[in-house]
């Protein structure tokens, strides 16, 4: 067997550790079949990723190495890499190479009001959380307005890193009027427990409806640091205000999701005019 020198970048230490990745010697591309050469190279890389031969965050063989191995042009390998990157299999680091992307993709439909924990459970993913901040503080003008309370009223603030199957997914900061959940900061461990479950079961919250906005943007320097991002790739920024049965806001939350780990599905229904054939294309 031949080997290619591969590097794994650790999010925690940023150290580069050399690792040998074994490449089977009997892999080749066939120019005499209908499948384009770039597609065959793409499928070779996909098989390596799926089998674990190319681990997450490891560097793939270079374009030059693959071009020589398969006796094709570098342009052919470049096209294969671009397809892999477009489909989320790999990511490129300028001047460093092409690396295997994490394969945990969160697929959420915007139809129901649910928590992060509930969304992950639907996809059989293990949720873990790291608390960055938890406390009670006076509400500033912005959060007082969002929660329909007086400025200076106490709010419970919870900031967490959320993970699925031990992979970083999002940074989340939640604000709740403290009068609605007294002592919540003292009695619960939200690195282990679901906030929504506690609010429903212990404080009789009725979470009936929410208004949510989603925005694609570049991360701030602080967000990049907390989400262990190497470069300012786009993130999905969420703002959600949740209301109870009395139409009173009981939660205002901001979340930032890694753009390559999260997929949104939106269910669209026709208007009455569209159903009746009155709509225009």
TrEMBL record:
<feature type="domain" description="HTH gntR-type">
    <location>
        <begin position="35"/>
        <end position="103"/>
    </location>
</feature>
<dbReference type="GO" id="GO:0003677">
    <property type="term" value="F:DNA binding"/>
</dbReference>
<dbReference type="InterPro" id="IPR000524">
    <property type="entry name" value="Tscrpt_reg_HTH_GntR"/>
</dbReference>
<dbReference type="Pfam" id="PF07702">
    <property type="entry name" value="UTRA"/>
</dbReference>
<keyword id="KW-0805">Transcription regulation</keyword>
<keyword id="KW-0238">DNA-binding</keyword>
<dbReference type="InterPro" id="IPR050679">
    <property type="entry name" value="Bact_HTH_transcr_reg"/>
</dbReference>
<dbReference type="Pfam" id="PF00392">
    <property type="entry name" value="GntR"/>
</dbReference>
<protein>
    <recommendedName>
        <fullName>HTH gntR-type domain-containing protein</fullName>
    </recommendedName>
</protein>
<dbReference type="InterPro" id="IPR011663">
    <property type="entry name" value="UTRA"/>
</dbReference>
<keyword id="KW-0804">Transcription</keyword>
<dbReference type="InterPro" id="IPR028978">
    <property type="entry name" value="Chorismate_lyase_/UTRA_dom_sf"/>
</dbReference>
<dbReference type="GO" id="GO:0003700">
    <property type="term" value="F:DNA-binding transcription factor activity"/>
</dbReference>
<dbReference type="GO" id="GO:0045892">
    <property type="term" value="P:negative regulation of DNA-templated transcription"/>
</dbReference>
<dbReference type="InterPro" id="IPR036390">
    <property type="entry name" value="WH_DNA-bd_sf"/>
</dbReference>
<dbReference type="InterPro" id="IPR036388">
    <property type="entry name" value="WH-like_DNA-bd_sf"/>
</dbReference>
């Amino acid at each position: 067997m031949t080997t290619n020198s591969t590097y794994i970048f650790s999010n925690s230490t940023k150290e580069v550790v050399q690792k040998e990745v074994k490449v089977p010697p009997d892999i080749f591309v066939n120019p005499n079949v209908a499948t384009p050469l770039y597609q065959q190279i793409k499928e070779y890389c996909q098989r390596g990723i799926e089998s674990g031969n190319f681990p997450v965050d490891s560097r793939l063989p270079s374009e030059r190495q693959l071009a020589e191995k398969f006796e094709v042009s570098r342009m052919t390998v470049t096209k294969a890499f671009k397809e892999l990157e477009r489909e989320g299999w790999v990511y490129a680091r300028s001047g460093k190479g092409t690396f295997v992307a994490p394969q945990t993709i969160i697929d959420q439909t915007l139809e129901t009001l649910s928590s992060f924990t509930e969304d992950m459970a639907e996809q059989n993913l293990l949720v873990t959380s790291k608390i960055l901040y938890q406390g009670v503080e006076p509400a500033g003008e912005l959060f007082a307005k969002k929660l329909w309370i007086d400025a200076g009223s106490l709010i419970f603030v919870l900031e967490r890193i959320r993970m699925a199957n031990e992979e970083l997914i999002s940074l989340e900061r939640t604000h709740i009027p403290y009068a609605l959940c007294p002592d919540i900061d003292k009695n619960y461990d939200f690195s282990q427990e679901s906030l929504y479950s506690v609010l429903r079961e212990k404080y009789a919250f009725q979470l009936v409806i929410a208004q949510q906005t989603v925005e694609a943007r570049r991360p701030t320097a602080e967000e990049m640091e907390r989400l262990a991002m190497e470069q300012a790739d786009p993130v999905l920024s969420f703002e959600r205000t949740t209301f109870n049965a009395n139409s009173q806001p009981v939660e205002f939350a901001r979340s930032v999701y890694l753009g390559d780990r999260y997929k949104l599905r939106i269910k669209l229904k026709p208007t009455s005019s569209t159903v009746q054939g009155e709509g225009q294309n």
